[in-house]
Amino acid sequence: MKIPRPIPEWKRAWRMFSVQASAIIVAWVALPMDQQAALAGLVGIPPEAVPGVLAALAIVGRMVDQPKVRAE
Known about the structure:
72 residues; mainly alpha; 3 helices; 0% strand
């Protein structure tokens, strides 16, 4: 079995859009349901759709070139 290795830019992972979107998902599920509903109401989407939208953004963010993340 091959051992997974971190990407060369792992120290800059916080700059990656996919990591940021994933962190928001984690924070979202930690919120009480009433706060989720209030925040989703501000954006205009159902609260149960927020994790899916953020996950889709994380996937797209993983595929987009992000020059700020590349090792110099």
